[in-house]
Write the structure tokens for this entry.
Amino acid sequence: MRFRVLNLMELGTGFPEGHFDAVFCRNVLIYFNEATIQKATVLFHRALGPRCPLFLGHSESLLGRTRLFRPERAPDFIYYVREEA
């Protein structure tokens, strides 16, 4: 198992496609404007493999913002699963 810390603002197009099994981005998107959230969402979609989860903080949501991820419910939280294009 390998963990990496990445800077979303420096990822650009060099972000590895389908490289990650999960992304944890908790309490980060709340500080971004809508355009940056959309850019980050596209980067997450590219980076995650099929059916891989994206975990956001409790105060963050992608509902109504994108169709790249669908929400899934766990007992105590909601996470997002990458939709196939």
Observations:
- The chain has a mean pLDDT of 87.
- Strands lie at 23-25, 53-56, 69-73, 78-82.
